[in-house]
Each structure stands twice: as structure tokens, then as C-alpha cells.
Amino acid sequence: MASDSKAWGALTVVATLGAVALAKKVTDVSWRAATGKNPPINPADPDVDMTEAVLWAVFSGTAVGLVRMAVQRKTALYYQRSTGHLPGQVQADGK
């Protein structure tokens, strides 16, 4: 069982890092398309307009969260198909 846990951990780390990198690129391009400006490098910088900083935080946080969740679901399905069972860390709701 410990090897399953390690395999699951490694698989999710690699998949999540790739997904977050992709989400960052997509959010940057989307932000530029929507606003005509580059996204704030550091929204905590007092020189960044507060509205822009809040919008960027909401937009980027939501995008990264959604991509991360989708990748974890796909990774769990891949793991299940490969091993015949879900990893112990993935619990079915209400089952």
C-alpha cells in the first residue's frame, strides 16, 4: 500500500505542476486579451491599482483552482484504470 501512496503522490505532483504552468500561460494570455495590459507581476505592490489586483487574484486563482481540480480528477481516473482501484487518498463522497 505504501508504494501505491508514493506512486499516487508522484503522479499528482507531476500532473499538477504541468497543469498549473499551463493555467498560468492561459490566464496571462486571456488577461492581455481582455484588458490590453500585462497581468500584474505582484498584485501586493501598492503601485498596482487595487481593483486590478483584486480582479487578477480572483481570475487567476479561480483558473488555477479549476485546472488543478480537473487534472486531479483525470489523474485519479488514470490511476484507477491502471491499477484497478482508486488511490487511498481519493475518497468517494457518500459511498
Layout of helices and strands:
Blueprint: H1 2-35, H2 50-83
Helix pairs in contact: 1-2
Write up this protein:
- This protein has 95 residues and is mainly alpha-helical.
- The protein has 2 helices and no strands.
- It has helices at 2-35, 50-83.
- Helix 1 runs antiparallel to helix 2.
- The chain is elongated, with a radius of gyration of 18 Å.
- 6% of the residues are buried.
- The model has no long low-confidence stretch (mean pLDDT 87).
In short:
The protein has 95 residues and is mainly α. The protein contains two helices and no strands.
Key terms:
95 residues; mainly alpha; 0% strand
Structural category is mainly alpha
Whole-Å distance between the termini?
A: 21 Å
Please state the oligomeric state of the protein chains shown. single chain
Average residue-wise pLDDT: 87
Radius of gyration over all CA atoms, rounded: 18 Å
As a percent range, the share of helical residues equals: over 70%
SSE arrangement, N to C: HH
Give the count of helical stretches: 2
Number of extended strands: 0
